[in-house]
Amino acid sequence: MSVRDEFDDWATDGRDKGMEDRHWHTAKHALARMPVEPGDVVLDLGTGSGYALRALHDTKDIGHGYGLDGSPEMVNNAREYTESDDIEFVVGDFDDLPFEDDSIDHVWSMEAFYYAPDPHHTLEEVARVLKPGGTFFCAVNYYEENVHSHEWQDNISIEMTRWSHEEYREHFRDAGLYVAEQDSIADMDIDIPDESEFPTDSWDTRQDMIDRYRTYGTLLTVGVAP
Predict the structure, then answer these.
(1) What pLDDT does 1 receive?
(2) Which residues lie below 8 Å from residue 130, measured CB to CB, with a gap of 6+?
């Protein structure tokens, strides 16, 4: 199954809103760090329901937002959820971004980058469209150090890229982006039941769940265009 088919199904089933709710736990902290100024142009790669652009529009007064997704159904849903004319959504591929060189102030991606068929080329595309000094905030929960994410590949038909912290930094630099920041953002919002509730359908032990959300959380890598 292609990325488009997979996430068309998700959007049709209404799972885009579930993704938004889960991602928001850590996304809100990463979005708050973005050095966005009023009037800036922001691109959201793998926009899903479009929640990140709506948040940036409401809190940081972006000039224009582009939400790109490979799923037409996701794009249709995002348009329905969004009232602002300053935000538009397009169907597109990560390996061929439909934007001019040096045309975007900031790029955001949450839980989508690892679906890129050629992630290194995607980074080159991000570097191409960013203005000098522009930033790429790349947030992922599926990464090498997060051992509790490794089994996700077994549950989805799309091939995903699982890089380590170091590999993210190396690939960012190889694509021409300076690495300005990298850390893990803990999910402090998700409820972790009492020890007596374990094991569950998803977790063998309470400590495993604590490690997944409170220790590993979301890996954020921030690149800056020269």
Answers:
(1) 60
(2) 102, 104, 105, 106, 107, 136, 225
